[in-house]
Design brief:
The complex is a heterodimer of chains A (about 375) and B (about 550). In chain A, α12 runs antiparallel to α13 and α18 runs antiparallel to α19. Chain A contains 20 helices and no strands. The two termini of chain A are about 55 Å apart. By secondary structure, chain B is mainly beta. Chain B contains six helices and 39 strands. In chain B, strands 14, 15, 16, 17 and 18 form a five-stranded antiparallel β-sheet that branches. Chain B has a four-stranded antiparallel β-sheet with strand order 1-29-28-27, with no helix packed on it. Classes of the chains: A mainly alpha (about 375), B mainly beta (about 550). The interface between A and B is large, with 36 and 40 residues.
C-alpha cells in the first residue's frame, strides 16, 4: 500500500552537501534503487551525520525507513527535514504518508495539503478517516480525474460518498425524525436489511405525510414485488408512473408487474412506453419480446429479441432471448432456426456456469 | 337498454353452474380411526431424506366401493446413523399404514392384518403407486423408499404379500414417485420408478453455513430412473437401458403419464429438481426419446432450469390434449405447459394466472380435479417449503403453508378459500371421492403431523351441478384401463392413478358436468378400441367394460354402485 504512495521526486535544495556527504548520498540512492534498504539507511544516516543541515539527507533517510516499513523510525528524520526546510513539499508528502499509515490521519492532513498537487488520494483517504467527507469526495474526484478507473481511488470514492450519504441521513433523522424523508430513509435502510414489514411501514408513513413524495411509491412497489405481491406492486408502480410519467424505470416496473400477473396486453403497453422513454434497455426489450410472445405476436417478439441480441450478445438476457426465439421458430416449424437458437442458448448457458450445464443434465453416455 | 339487460341476465344465468363456490371449498375432517403421524425424524444434521416423505394412496383395496387410505411413513433417523442403514421400521410408530373405510365414514387400521407392517429396517419410506399389475381385479401397492422398494400383491382376501424378490422390482438407491402404466399396450401394467439422486447416508451433509439447511440437489450427483416391463408371470424385467430411459440422468421427484401426441402410446413426464424437466416420448417400439427441450416442456419461459417437484399430466383447458403442470420452489412460479398439439408445448404460467398465485410458494403434490363440478378442472397444490428453517434465511418465505386451491375460470385460475387455515408442512396429496357424493375430496400428508382429510363441501352446499364417475374395466387393455383417453361432454381425462408427488389417486375418473343431465362418453382404450356411450345419466358411478370384439355396446356398461 505504502509503495503506491511513494513516488517522491527529490527536490534539489539550494543547499549543496559536502563532497564526502555527497558520496554517501549517491551510495544511498544506489542501494535504495536496488531495494537494499538497510544499506541505504546506513548511507543516508552518514549523510545526516556529515551534514546535519542538509534537509534532503533527512528526507532520503525517512523515505528509506518507510520503504523498509519502519514507519515509526521515519518520523524523526522527516520532521527534522521540515525544521531545516519548512516548505519542502517532498518532506510534507512523506511525513503525511507516514502519519497516515500509522493512523494519525488528522496530523497527516496539514502535511498532505502541502504535498504536490498531482495526487489527492492520500489526502482524501485522511479526510475520510477524520470525517471530512465532503472534502474527501472532492479530493478523490480530483484524484480520479487524474487516474481514471484506478481501483483504489474508486473504492475510496465510493466509501466516502457512502459515508457522506449516511452522514446526511443521520443528520436528517436526528433533526427531523418524523419527516417524510426520514421515513423514506428508514424504509430504504430496512429494505437493504431485508426487513420488509418495517420497510413497508416506513414507506407507508412517508406517503401518509406526503403522498407525492418522489420515489417512495417505486421503492414500496419493490417491497411488494420482492414478496410476490404483484397486485400491490402494480398499484405502487402505477402511482409512481402517474406522479412521474417520464420515469422510465417506474413504467418498466409497472410493465413487469403486469406481466407477472398475466395482464399481457397492459404490460405490453407500459413496456413500450418505457422503451420509448429510455430506448434499447435490454431488460425492457426482453420483457417486450416476452409480452409480445405471450400475446401471440410472434413477429413483434422476434423483432424485440433480435434487437436485444444486437445490443447484448453474451449476457443472461441474451441467452433468454435465444431461448425465446427457439420457441418461436419451433412453433413456426422453422426447425433449423429453432435448433440454431437453442444451440446459442445452450452455449451461453454453459458459458455462464461451465461446471454445471443448467439447461441439460449429463447423459449417461 | 333492453339489450344490455338481456345480456346481463344471460351472463348471470349461464354462469350459475360454474359460479364460484361459496367459500370454503373443503371442510377439514378428522375421520374416526384415522390415526396416523408421518414420522420423518428431523435431525440437526439435516439428512436430506427427512424433508422428502411421504406418499398417500386412495384405493379400494377390498372392492367394497369405499375408498381406503394407505400412508407411507418415513423412519427413525439417529445420530450417528447406524451402519448398515436402520430406520427402525419394525417399530409400529414407523410403519406404513392402511386404513379401511367403514360404511359410516370412519376408518379402521388394518395394517397388521393386511400384512403391511414393518417395511424393512433399511428402508426410509417415500411414496406409493397403485395398480393391478396382475389384472386380478384387486389393486396392488408399490412402495418406494430410500433403500429397497416393496411390491405388495393384493391377495383379494384383505391381505397383501410382499412379492418384491420374485417380481424383481426392489430398485435400490433413493426412489421417489412411481407409477404403473402400460407403455407397450400389451394389457399388463409396467412400472416406472423415479429416483432423486445418487445420495446415501454415508455421504449426507448439511449446507447453508451457520444456518444448517438441507442441501440443494446440485450438491449430489444425478441418477437414472427405472422402467420395469411386466412379463405377465408375476415378474418384471428392468428395461431402463434397453428402453433409453437410463440414457438420461436426472434428479427426479415426480412422474406423470399421458399420451401427449395422440400416437396411441403413453408418454412419460418426469419433474427434475434444479435442472431441466424430462419428457420421454414413447416411440411405440419399446424405446423412449427424451424430447423436453424440443417440445418446449423442459425449462421456464425464460429458459431457466427449475426445481421440479410434483407433476400432473392432464387436460386443463378441455382441448382434449394433456397439459403439464409442475410445482416448484418460490420465485420460480409453478409451470404450466400447455399442449399445443403437434408434439409442442407452450409455457402458460402467466396467462393462466398460476404464476401470480404461486410465486411465493413451494409446491409438492398437485392435482387437476373439478372441485366445483362445473366442467373445468381446478388446481390443488400441497404447499410448504423444503427447508424447515427457511424463515431465518429469508423472512419473506415460510416453511409451513396452506394448500393452494384455485378454480378454473375460462382457463384462468383464481384462488379460493381451501378451508385449511392452519399452515402445515404438506408433502403428498391424493384425490378421490371418499364419501361417494360425487364431489372430489383430498387427503394430504404433512411432515411430523397428522394427514389432512379435506371433504368437499360442494354437495353439502346444495349445488345442483351434475357429475359422473367412471370406473374402467379393461379386457384386452389392462384391467384398470390405465392409459385410456376418456372424453365426457367435451372434457378429457387420461386414466391413471399416478398423481402429484409420491401419491396415487382414486383410479375412478371423475367428471363435473355442470347443468348436463346426460352425458356422452367416449373412450379410447389402450388396445386401440374406441367406445362411445350416448345418453348416459349423470350423477352416477358407472363401470364401463372394454368391449369384446363384436359385443353390443350397451352390454358393457353398468352402474358400479
Amino acid at each position: 500500500m505504502i509503495r503506491a504512495f511513494l513516488f517522491l521526486t527529490l527536490s534539489f535544495a539550494l543547499h549543496t552537501p559536502s563532497p564526502e556527504a555527497a558520496e554517501h548520498m549517491q551510495a544511498g540512492i544506489a542501494a535504495d534503487k536496488q531495494h537494499q534498504f538497510d544499506v541505504a539507511i546506513t548511507e543516508f544516516r552518514k549523510v545526516t551525520e556529515l551534514d546535519p543541515s542538509y534537509a534532503d539527507g533527512f528526507i532520503s533517510l525517512g523515505q528509506a525507513y518507510m520503504e523498509k516499513h519502519e514507519f515509526a523510525s521515519a518520523m524523526a528524520p522527516l520532521k527534522r527535514a521540515l525544521e531545516l526546510d519548512q516548505d519542502s513539499a517532498p518532506a510534507h508528502q512523506l511525513l503525511g504518508y507516514d502519519l497516515l499509515v500509522q493512523g494519525y490521519a488528522a496530523a497527516a492532513i496539514p502535511h498532505l495539503e502541502r504535498a504536490p498537487d498531482r495526487d489527492k488520494t492520500a489526502l482524501g483517504l485522511a479526510q475520510i478517516q477524520t470525517g471530512l467527507l465532503p472534502e474527501a469526495v472532492a479530493n478523490l474526484q480530483a484524484a480520479l480525474a487524474a487516474r481514471p478507473n484506478d481501483p483504489d481511488i474508486l473504492y475510496y470514492l465510493g466509501r466516502a460518498s457512502g459515508l457522506l450519504s449516511k452522514q446526511s441521513i443521520d443528520t436528517l433523522l436526528a433533526a427531523y425524525p418524523d419527516s417524510p424523508r426520514a421515513h423514506q430513509a428508514m424504509g430504504e435502510n430496512y429494505f437493504v436489511l431485508r426487513q420488509m414489514p418495517q420497510a413497508e411501514k416506513e414507506y407507508r408513513d412517508a406517503l401518509s405525510l406526503r403522498p407525492d413524495i418522489p420515489e417512495v411509491h417505486l421503492e414500496l412497489g419493490e417491497v411488494y414485488a420482492g414478496a410476490f405481491e404483484w397486485p400491490k406492486a402494480e398499484e405502487e408502480f402505477r402511482a409512481q408512473a402517474k406522479l412521474q410519467p417520464g420515469n422510465a424505470e417506474a413504467i418498466y416496473r409497472l410493465g413487469s408487474a403486469l406481466l407477472e400477473q398475466g395482464k399481457v396486453h397492459e404490460a405490453r403497453v407500459e413496456l413500450a412506453r418505457a422503451d420509448k422513454l429510455m430506448p434499447d434497455m435490454p431488460e425492457t426489450l426482453y420483457s417486450l419480446g416476452k409480452a409480445a410472445s405471450l400475446e401471440g405476436d410472434a413477429a413483434a417478439a422476434e423483432k424485440e429479441w433480435t434487437k436485444l441480441l444486437s445490443i447484448e450478445k453474451e449476457s443472461l438476457l441474451a441467452a433468454q432471448a435465444h431461448f425465446g426465439l427457439a420457441g418461436l421458430y419451433r412453433k413456426q416449424g422453422k426447425t433449423a432456426a429453432a435448433q440454431r437458437e437453442m444451440q446459442e442458448f445452450q452455449r451461453l448457458q454453459r458459458g455462464s456456469n461451465p461446471t454445471q450445464p443448467p439447461a441439460q443434465e449429463e447423459s449417461q453416455h | 337498454m333492453l339489450n344490455s339487460l338481456l345480456r346481463a341476465v344471460l351472463v348471470v344465468t349461464m354462469a350459475l353452474p360454474g359460479a364460484p363456490l361459496a367459500a370454503p371449498v373443503f371442510e377439514v375432517s378428522a375421520p374416526l380411526g384415522l390415526n396416523f403421524t408421518l414420522e420423518n425424524s428431523p435431525t440437526p444434521q439435516k439428512h436430506l431424506i427427512e424433508t422428502m416423505p411421504g406418499g398417500v394412496a386412495l384405493l379400494d383395496y377390498n372392492n367394497d366401493g369405499l375408498l381406503d387410505i394407505f400412508f407411507v411413513n418415513g423412519g427413525r433417523l439417529t445420530t450417528p446413523l447406524p451402519t448398515p442403514d436402520n430406520f427402525d421400521r419394525h417399530d409400529p410408530k414407523y410403519w406404513n399404514r392402511l386404513f379401511r373405510q367403514n360404511k359410516d365414514g370412519s376408518f379402521t387400521d388394518v395394517t397388521e392384518q393386511a400384512g403391511l407392517a414393518n417395511a424393512g429396517d433399511g428402508n426410509y419410506g417415500m411414496g406409493v403407486a397403485v395398480g393391478d399389475y396382475d389384472n386380478d381385479g384387486y389393486p396392488d401397492l408399490y412402495v418406494t423408499s430410500y433403500g429397497k422398494n416393496i411390491l405388495y400383491h393384493n391377495n383379494g382376501d384383505g391381505t397383501f404379500t410382499d412379492v418384491t424378490a420374485k417380481a424383481g422390482v426392489a430398485a435400490g438407491g433413493w426412489s421417489v414417485s412411481a407409477g404403473f402404466f402400460d407403455y407397450d399396450n400389451d394389457g399388463k401394467l409396467d412400472l416406472f420408478v423415479t429416483r432423486y439422486m445418487d445420495w446415501d447416508t454415508k455421504h449426507s451433509k448439511d449446507c447453508g453455513g451457520n444456518y444448517h439447511t438441507y442441501c440443494p440437489p446440485e450438491e449430489f450427483p444425478a441418477t437414472t430412473n427405472i422402467l420395469y416391463h411386466n412379463n405377465g408371470d408375476g415378474t418384471f424385467t428392468d428395461v431402463s437401458q434397453k428402453s433409453g430411459i437410463a440414457a438420461k440422468k436426472g434428479r427426479a421427484l415426480g412422474v406423470g403419464f399421458a399420451d401427449y401426441d395422440g400416437d396411441g402410446f403413453t408418454d412419460i413426464f418426469v419433474s427434475n429438481d434444479g435442472m431441466q424437466q424430462y419428457l420421454f416420448h414413447n416411440n411405440g417400439n419399446g424405446t423412449f426419446t427424451e424430447l423436453g427441450l424440443e417440445a418446449g416442456a423442459a425449462l421456464s419461459e425464460d429458459g431457466r432450469r427449475m426445481s421440479g417437484m410434483g407433476v400432473v399430466f392432464q387436460d386443463y383447458d378441455n382441448d382434449g390434449r394433456p397439459d403439464i403442470m409442475v410445482t416448484l420452489l418460490p420465485r420460480e412460479i409453478y409451470a404450466v405447459y400447455h399442449n399445443d398439439g403437434g408434439g409442442s408445448f407452450s409455457y402458460r404460467s402467466l396467462e393462466t394466472g398460476l404464476g401470480v398465485l404461486s410465486s411465493g410458494s413451494s409446491g409438492w403434490s398437485i392435482g387437476l380435479e373439478d372441485f366445483d363440478n362445473d366442467g373445468w378442472k381446478d388446481i390443488f397444490v400441497a404447499q410448504a417449503h423444503v427447508l424447515d428453517n427457511v424463515e431465518s434465511i429469508d423472512p419473506s418465505l415460510h416453511y409451513r403453508d396452506v394448500p393452494l386451491v384455485a378454480m378454473n375460470r375460462n382457463n384462468r385460475f383464481e384462488r379460493v378459500d381451501s378451508g385449511v387455515t392452519t399452515p402445515m408442512a404438506a408433502r403428498g396429496a391424493a384425490f378421490g371421492d371418499l364419501n361417494n357424493d360425487g364431489w372430489e375430496d383430498v387427503v394430504m400428508t404433512c411432515l411430523g403431523g397428522h394427514p389432512q382429510v379435506l371433504m368437499n363441501l360442494g354437495g353439502k352446499a346444495g349445488s345442483k351441478a351434475h357429475w359422473l364417475v367412471i370406473t374402467l374395466r379393461g379386457t384386452r387393455s389392462n384391467r384398470d384401463g390405465y392409459g385410456a383417453r376418456v372424453r365426457v361432454n367435451g372434457q378429457t381425462r387420461f386414466a391413471t392413478s399416478t398423481v402429484g408427488y409420491l401419491s396415487a389417486s382414486d383410479k375412478r375418473l371423475h367428471f363435473g358436468l355442470g347443468t348436463a343431465e346426460k352425458a356422452k362418453v367416449e373412450i379410447m382404450w389402450p388396445s386401440g378400441i374406441h367406445q362411445t356411450l350416448n345418453d348416459v345419466h349423470t350423477d352416477q358411478f358407472l363401470e364401463v367394460k372394454e368391449p369384446e370384439a363384436g359385443a353390443p355396446e350397451e352390454q358393457n356398461r353398468k352402474p358400479s354402485q
